[in-house]
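Schema walkthrough. Field components (list of strings):
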Amino acid sequence: MRENRSFGFYALASFFALFLLFLYGPTITIFVLSFQGPEGGLTFPMRGASLHWFQKLMEGIGVVDIGSAFVRSLKLGLVVTGLTVALSVSAALAFRKALRGGNVLFYVVVASLIMPSIIVSLGVGLSFRLLDTALKTLFAAIGWDSMSESFNTTMGLYTSALGAQLTWTLPFGLLVMFAVFNRFNSAYEEAALDLGATPWQSFRHVVFPLIAPSVVGVGMFGFTLSWDEIARSSQAIGDLNTLPLELQGLTTTVTTPVIYALGTLTTVISFIVVGVTIGVMALSRRRARGKSTT
Amino acid sequence: MATTTSTAKPAISAARRSGPAAWLQAGPLGLVFLLFFILPLVLILAVSFWDASEYELIPAFTPKNYVAIFDGCSNARDLCVTLKTYYSTLKFCFLAWLFTLLIGFTVAYFLAFHVKTAGMQTVLFLLCTIPFWTSNVIRMISWVPLLGRNGLINDMLIGVGLVSQPQEWLLFSSFSVVLAFIHLFTIFMIVPIFNSMMRIDRALLEAALDAGATPWQTLWNVIVPLSRTGIIIGSIFVITIVMGDFVTIGVMGGQQIASVGKIIQVQTSYLQFPLAAANAVILLAVVLMIIWALTRLVDIRKEL
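Field assembly_structure (string):
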């Protein structure tokens, strides 16, 4: 049997290796090129090595203030992460009980996942514009002049953009939690309740510690998906762009390695988040195993 | 009543006894989808029949947005803009689907059946998924130093003597768009297909082998049919993403290639909401038809 599949195995392994090269090769290329010398261009050869382009990045690219966009994206990402974790865990708990309309809600969530993002983005943007019009009419009608003059728009980072991003991160969060509870052994929870724990105590001290590693995973989905999100927030962002939206705009105008420096920076942040998540998950799993054997 | 169900299904009863009412727990999530998904879709449908002046939207019930989109489309010899755009988007869609399926299936097959230890499987699977959590635009730009006029590929081709001039079709072309789709979205095939494959009972493979099936026969008659669910889910993912795409086609096509998503994006940025909404309704109808056809395809095969 071993003889039999060895050729197939090596062929497939080579294919897989090539696929990984295809996956990572380009990213590694721009990682290297972001350390291009001050004289260097967008392609090889490297003309020296320096941090010149990172320095340029800190100074800002043209009119774009990279620093504030960075901070905005970070804050929005954290809010999205918090809401994704809280709402998906809570909803997944609800789905374990008899939830009326649960099927409909599930299909809506799946539909949101596979809905072309431009449609969601247009829809959210449109809704907020209609809301703006309605509010302006209202302010004018009740004679609230100071308000109707100063009022500009309800669209913004923490209203329309946040909502648009949640339609993208929540389906991932909920599906991960479904997978977790499908494999969840409720005997422990049953035992806690039989011993007189309140529902909250059994969740806090029994259920939550068991699902905690996966909850960290849901948080990672929330943050990384928000951190790189373009399609859904594009038409719903309001006046101030997030980092990826600025980045998308820069692709057509910037012709120096400064854009690679920006790429390296955002990729490093994604890697840190993913790395920490995987580390925490592995660690807590090992700790759980250690506890159960001793 | 409650006690009889709880003795019949002890697993559910534990969850049932714990915590606040189910609708209270699912409510916040439901509310987000109601406000930011259902309501916007309803508004898109409504506004697609509205009229608009230069400054404002005018509530009405007029088919003129749809008429404008299909203006001149009855001419069979010369395709109108809308049909041309759909043709080109569908072409991208088909190419992206075909390649992501072939590559994704092969990778998933290798991971599921040829990597023996679970630890190694996890590590290799993670290696495939990590890029998914990094920025798509960065991953697109990262092709520039490779495919550009003075990029590595052109240098190599010229160095070997295959071509005498830098090839222009490598970047900001249909080629680079399809390449980026494969680069970015193969993961959407790998994950569901791998998941389906891991559920296949290994005894079936041994049974096939014992019954004298060649590896190819086992692959085609056992593994492919049993991976069906994963293949369909992956296909739905890739097709819906590519059908509505405007970011990848924009960046990798050098903002020169049209797509349905791009039309909607441009019309939205010019605040032509009724027109954009009508286009979105049509796109949604086309996507739903494709998904319906895909799921039908499975059912028919199951019935045969």
